[in-house]
Amino acid sequence: MTIDLGLSTSTGDLVVNNFDLTLVDSTDQIAQNLAIRLRFFLAEWFLDIESGIPYYQDILIKAPNQFRVESVIKEEIINTDGIVEILSFSTNFNERDRKFTVSFSCDSVSGVINLELELL
Predict the structure, then answer these.
(1) Using CA atoms, how far apart are residues 83 and 78, in angstroms rounded to an integer?
(2) Taking a C-beta distance cutoff of 8 angstroms, is the pair 80, 32 a contact?
(3) Which helix (H) or strand (E) holds 20?
(4) Which helix (H) or strand (E) holds 120?
(5) 113, 31 in Cβ contact below 8 A?
């Protein structure tokens, strides 16, 4: 079982309660890891330029291919440690506000995870 430091879902900052860091494990840790991976741009980290989602190459372009965008995100989800399978998946792009949201449910080694993330 992996234990991580807890991060705020809205800001990404460390969660501190009564001057103590919060720890997460099981489904919360896997869900947190998923949120981090889905917001990680390709080549963002100089020590591993092959990690991340190709936002600039496939998503943040004029007229992106919806099938390609969804397949890239699904691939990142299924390649996350602890994920067994994707149970449901949907995306929504609000052109007026330029916001991209992904909602999905997946089965993990610790149980079912339901997430809705605003990626852009």
Answers:
(1) 6
(2) no
(3) strand 20-21
(4) none
(5) yes
Rounded to whole angstroms, the Cα distance separating 116 from 77 reads 13
CB 22 within 8 A of CB 15: yes
Q: What is the pLDDT of residue 1?
A: 63
**Could you give the percent of the chain with pLDDT greater than 70?**
99
**Mean confidence (pLDDT) of the chain:** 90
Q: Which pair of tokens denotes residue 74?
A: 């699904």
Question: 3-118, which class in CATH?
Answer: alpha beta
Delimit the domains of the chain by residue range.
Answer: 3-118
> What secondary structure letter does DSSP report for 59?
I
Contact present, 74 and 88 (Cβ < 8 Å):
no
Token duo for residue 86: 């994707």
